[in-house]
Amino acid sequence: MVNHYYFYCVDEDFGPFFLKFCSYFPYNAKLCINGHEYLKRQLAKRGVAFEALDNGIKSCADPNLLRRLSDGLSAGRIDRLLRKWLKRLPHPFPPRDRAAGYRYQLSILQAEFSLTQVLDQPVMGRIFFEEVIRENLDIGRPSQVSLVFDRRVSRRTPGQFRTRVITDGVVPSLHVDYKKTRIKQYHKEGQALRTETTINDTRDFAIGRRIKNLEDLRKIGFAANRRLLDVQRIGHDCFIGEASFQNMQKPVTVNNRRAAALRFADPRVQALLQVLLLFLLVQGTFTHKHLREHLAPLLGQKPSQLTPGRITYDLRRLRLHALIERIEKTHRYRITAKGLRTALFYTRLYNRSLRPALAIISPAAANPVLPMARSIRAAETAINKWYEHEKLAA
Length: 394
What we know:
Layout: E1 4-11, E2 15-22, E3 29-32, H1 35-45, E4 50-53, E5 56-60, H2 63-71, H3 75-86, H4 95-99, E6 111-118, H5 122-135, H6 142-149, E7 163-168, E8 171-178, E9 181-188, E10 192-199, H7 214-236, H8 242-248, E11 252-254, E12 257-259, H9 267-282, E13 285-286, H10 288-298, H11 308-320, E14 324-326, E15 333-335, H12 337-361, H13 371-393
Antiparallel strand pairs: 1-2, 2-3, 4-5, 6-10, 7-8, 8-9, 9-10, 11-12, 13-15, 14-15
Helix pairs in contact: 6-9, 9-10, 9-12
């Protein structure tokens, strides 16, 4: 028994596509199109020179036109494509069924939204992307995924939250999952950084499946691409400057209100900034109570052990240092752009550089055979020998 019939077609406006009809009730059908093929056809019809990538556009003589054509790929155009070819192809509903009201209605089974950034120096692109992968192996955590997709993630949120690095030959790719939606990022054809969000269930974002929801889905997909790149950019280059760093180490006075310093090595400061990142990634805003509940475990205490006055003191420090701001007419706070950069700089430098390095060079290092540990020991021995020699000579 034949289960499905495939029609592989070439359209004047959309280029290659296929229609798939199921051979049994309720006679479902599937339409698969490629937006990049649509763009190539439209540019060719207008005589605009362009250079194509596999499933992408590398360059175009008129980038503004390319952007308008991309934005013009609407639900209405896709629906007209379907109606046009249903008139030409044999399918399960003959004219009498259509007259009785049996008609195909488009819904979104899968939608992919991609961003292709062509690199000026392709040779450096692979090195850059491998650094991006190394710096973002934790991007699949629920807190990070919540930031990328702008969705709150709780313990009841279904799905696996993970980061996967998959290598096809010698080309690595970064994969981040949220429910049935995933983002894939890879170095495309050695020339571009490709970031693509694939939404397999529109209800992951409380949106219906009908084709009329394509525009809302487009906003979500492209916003997710941009957020991932923003997180990577800040994480890859979060230098806040010597002056800014030193200002954090000193008390600050704003409108005659004084706040204590936020010293880099202070465990409470590190915990506060960790919590700020958590709030940014999970829910965006927070209250006095939220800060108390999340800060206590990081300090090895219970929320009841942190007095309200102490939390107010911490909030004032963060606010006067411009790391957070209070939302007008509410008792809620949110992290600022400066706060995001500072929190990433403080926490990453402390957790990824300072603590591991100190563990290596300490007298009770867990692994004394590491090259750095051996070098430190050798330098220490040489200094001691020189000192003893000079002392004896004197």
